[in-house]
């Protein structure tokens, strides 16, 4: 009996020792897992994968998914998705981009975005039509998922990426474009979109094969800027633009949350746009604690030399034809202000940039007269204001220092113009700069040139034309421009010798400059 008891006690001691050792092993294992959790990573659990989206869920995750006309509530349990139909209601606060419809489960906080055609993703943020990336691709939201090496990208929600800085658990994942998908993104401002891959037993990254969009070499806007797709993101006041996908803009008419976002170029960026056909590109900004907006500090593209097709008849007159200002929108009329406020026509000029007009030095006797000058753009009739006329003061006048008033050598002057509000010329159909020749450019003999202005009908006439005139002349060769053939006049190297031997048109008969 004692032997039996002694054996039982011995067995009990051994059992206790085994239990103690096992508990130490388990305790050690738990300590390792606990240490991993401290590093901000998830414990490895059984996974559920949705087909065909490729979305990954871990044990305990819940979500909604469409099932025909119904909506199902799903839970990941031991590697299996267990789903059943649930009633839904409209979300009180939309969570869907690009006009997606948000519905929420009646008895849980899970929601589902029903995307418009061409969009997908948990928030309808993925643009299935996007075929290239702009700039460095930080705003790319397309569905490319292969690297340059041809490998398929890993889902940003993969557990193997838990220790990576950029994964689906990032606090700004939605704004960065990363989530429960494997599409290429550029969350860290690299030179192009990239993704993670698994190679040789390691999780590494690689650039993606998504092509770059054709480069926009000039960041400027044309007309009103409704087609502007540049990267300007600062207003005229210097404020930084808000991102169009900012949650602050959910209730705004124009934002990345609206169904028209793609059409207007509104997305995961803060670049200036003009979705409402305003006068120029603009963006939303913060003004203290209020959301406001401002026009952007984006330059207008140069449209020099472009004019509207001639629609009105060009009646032939002696030594020239009548014309409309839209046929020569760079033509400027320069007036001098006399005592009593009356203005009289002084000379013609040419707009060469929004703030500068080139004219002739012989029109002005002294620089102090600049304060009395006014420049008119958009005027067809010499003394009648045009429908879209713009009027400017002359801020500064530069007369060529070597202008010769006897032979008119260096007969050129520059006028810097500004309006009463301090702005320069705004491009319209009736006001647009002419193109400047490049440095050292020469034209061959007999090149046809066009002239315009309010000149006299004939050389000896006492009256200027009441309407803008135009004419065409040809550049004469040097042997036809000698003093012997020009009644003693000298043509210097700083002049052009031109005329029309057929219709007898020239700058003296067509323009006043």
Give an account of the 3D structure.
- By secondary structure, this protein is mainly β.
- It has 5 domains: 74 residues, Ribbon (Laminin), CATH 2.10.25; 86 residues, Plasminogen Kringle 4, CATH 2.40.20.10; 82 residues, Beta Barrel (Plasminogen Kringle 4); 97 residues, Beta Barrel (Thrombin, subunit H), CATH 2.40.10.10; 63 residues, Thrombin, subunit H (Beta Barrel), CATH 2.40.10.
- 10% of the residues lie in helices and 25% in strands.
- The chain contains 4 helices and 25 strands.
- Strands 17-18-19-22-21-20 form a 6-stranded antiparallel barrel. Strands 15, 16, 23, 24 and 25 form a 5-stranded antiparallel β-sheet that branches. A 3-stranded antiparallel β-sheet has the order 3-4-5, with no helix packed on it.
- The longest helix has 37 residues.
- The N and C termini lie far apart (136 Å).
- The N terminus and C terminus are likely disordered.
- Pfam families: EGF, Kringle, Trypsin.
- This is Plasminogen activator.
- It is an enzyme of class 3 (hydrolase).
- Keywords: Disulfide bond, EGF-like domain, Glycoprotein, Hydrolase, Kringle, Plasminogen activation, Protease, Secreted, Serine protease, Signal.
- It comes from Engystomops pustulosus (Tungara frog).
């Amino acid at each position: 009996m004692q032997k039996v008891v002694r054996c039982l006690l011995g067995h009990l001691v051994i059992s206790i020792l085994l239990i103690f050792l096992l508990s130490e092993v388990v305790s050690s294992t738990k300590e390792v897992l606990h240490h991993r959790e401290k590093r901000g990573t998830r414990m490895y659990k059984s996974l559920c994968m949705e087909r065909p989206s490729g979305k990954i869920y871990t044990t305990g995750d819940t979500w909604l998914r469409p099932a025909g006309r119904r909506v199902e509530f799903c839970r990941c349990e031991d590697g299996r998705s267990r789903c059943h139909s649930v009633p839904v209601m409209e979300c009180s606060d939309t969570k869907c981009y690009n006009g997606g419809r948000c519905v929420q489960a009646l008895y849980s906080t899970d929601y589902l975005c029903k995307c418009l055609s061409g969009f997908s993703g948990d928030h309808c943020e993925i643009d299935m039509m996007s075929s290239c990336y702009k700039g460095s691709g930080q705003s790319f939201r397309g569905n490319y998922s292969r690297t340059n090496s041809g490998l398929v990208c890993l889902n940003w929600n993969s557990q193997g990426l838990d220790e990576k800085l950029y994964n689906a658990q990032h606090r700004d994942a939605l704004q960065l474009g990363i989530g429960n998908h494997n599409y290429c993104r550029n969350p860290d401002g690299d030179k192009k979109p990239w993704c993670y891959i698994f190679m040789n037993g390691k999780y590494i990254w690689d650039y993606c094969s998504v092509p770059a969009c054709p480069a926009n070499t000039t960041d400027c806007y044309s007309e009103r800027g409704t087609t502007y797709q540049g990267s300007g993101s600062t207003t005229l006041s210097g404020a930084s633009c808000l991102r169009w996908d900012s949650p602050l803009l959910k209730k705004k008419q124009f934002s990345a949350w609206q169904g028209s976002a793609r059409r207007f170029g509104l997305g995961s960026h803060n670049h200036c746009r003009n979705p409402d056909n305003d006068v120029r590109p603009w963006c939303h900004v913060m003004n203290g604690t209020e959301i406001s907006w401002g026009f952007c500090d984006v330059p207008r593209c140069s449209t020099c030399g472009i004019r509207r097709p001639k629609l009105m008849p060009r009646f032939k007159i002696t030594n020239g034809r009548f014309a409309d200002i839209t046929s020569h929108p760079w033509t400027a009329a320069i007036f001098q202000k006399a005592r009593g406020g009356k203005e009289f026509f002084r000379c013609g000029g040419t707009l060469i940039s929004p703030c500068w007009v080139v004219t002739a030095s012989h029109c002005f006797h002294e620089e102090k007269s600049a304060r009395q000058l006014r420049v008119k753009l958009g005027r067809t009739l010499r003394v009648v204001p045009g429908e879209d006329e713009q009027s400017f003061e002359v801020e500064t006048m530069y007369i060529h220092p070597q202008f010769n008033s006897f032979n008119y050598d260096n007969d050129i002057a520059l006028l810097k113009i500004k309006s009463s509000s301090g702005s320069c010329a705004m491009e319209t159909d009736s006001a647009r700069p002419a193109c400047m020749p490049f440095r050292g450019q020469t034209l061959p003999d007999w090149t046809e040139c066009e002239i315009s202005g309010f000149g006299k009908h004939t050389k000896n006439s006492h009256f200027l034309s009441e309407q803008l005139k135009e004419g065409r002349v040809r550049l004469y060769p040097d042997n036809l421009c000698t003093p012997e053939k020009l009644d003693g006049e000298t043509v210097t190297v700083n002049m052009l010798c031109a005329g029309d031997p057929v219709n007898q048109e020239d700058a003296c008969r067509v323009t006043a400059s």
